[in-house]
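Before relying on records like the one below, remember that each one covers exactly one chain. Contacts with other chains, cofactors or solvent are not represented anywhere in the record.
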Amino acid sequence: MEREQLHFITGRLAETALRSELGRLAAGKDFGYSIQVMPISVAALMTGRWIADRILIPADATAIVLPGYCAAGLEEVAARSSVPVRLGPRDLRDLPEMFGEPGHSTELGPWDIEILAEINHAPRMAGEAIDRAARSLAADGADMIDIGCEPGGGWLGIGDCVRRLRDQGLRVSVDSFDPVEVDAAVKAGAELVLSVNSTNVAHAADWGCEVVVVPDDPGAWEAVDATLEQLSARGVRFRVDPVLEPACVGLTASLVRYHAARQRWPDAEILMGIGNVTELTDADSAPLNLLLLGICQELGIRSVLTTQVINWARTSVRECAIARQMTWLAWQQRVPLKRLSDQLVIARDRRLADWPDDLLRQLADQVRDRNYRLFASDRTLSACGDGQLWQDADPFALFDRLLETQRQQLGPEHAFYLGYELCKAELAMQLGKRYVQDESLDWGYLTVREPDRHRLKKRKPSSIPDNQSSADRPPS
């Protein structure tokens, strides 16, 4: 196989760091490289047409790598190139991911765990509200909508509720011990009953659908044998649920029960109600859901029941939909749940950007226009522009420093823009996230990409630094 010879395009400011990073990567990877430094300080300001007019492609190059901010210029460069043109990362600190080093995110695919999403206290809700909730849960990844009934039973509208959902193409289960409620639900199309124990097992054969078996008392799990024997004798399909307990009040013992159930019935279908942990733990639900689905994957538990009642668990279904793909992939490859996806890395980021003072001072010396560049490190916020560098851990203090020398340049719109960006930068600094100016913070699967909405961008005619010659300027 031909050894790759990559030709990297960059600006003057990133040259030193790029050479250092490529030298390190090439020492451990089988590729060669060359670097063309364009006559411009900031690589992000280049356009495709401007690059195409200046690029010099070495004879041995097998591909060209453009900076990540040049996505709109790929076609123009490719049209004048005899080798493929690739888009590198926006931040060269992400360059290792291009070569499969830590941080690489594998594309997720199949899964084998079914998600049941419960609508709690459905009898208290209007029909339209139930329909909206069911459609939303299904869109987030729920395979079956579970209708949660009241403990006392007696809901006369359950048949109509199930029928409406079935007419919308949704699969439905019913969570009730009341035989009358269950009978109406299954006649309307419910395909699974939660739950059956000794109190209602006599009716199960009449329903003609699959049921979930739970113990009368989770602490006396062995007593479920009698219920299972009755169901087997009458040909009723079932799933077993040993009942998951909340942390610190029985979680460990209940996990032991699930393991024992799998050892005892190696081919049985098992369901785990994970909402008992996510709803009853003062913590964000995403890592809890991932851990619980990892346990399910190991034990061959093919269905989970979750809820979205408490605010910190309001997106549990989406989290489970991602988690089941991650756990399936990890299980198939026999690897830990690491470096498979960043979608559930929410509050913090996988890696932080490092902005040493010497690099920031170099940037301040190079960039002399009046469009401020903002950076956030572990403990410091930085702004540079007009040949100067301002730093402080407090965004208000940083802005005061800007006012001392830049008051005439800071009109209302510019001040609002800087305040908006400094708010993001401070949040990133506090949480341990990466901040990139004019881009949204990365919240994993919850990220909402910022549109191109900045008012300053719409007003200014060009972003090219004032100190660059016309030869340095890409066409606007």
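Residues 459-476 have pLDDT under 50 and may be disordered.
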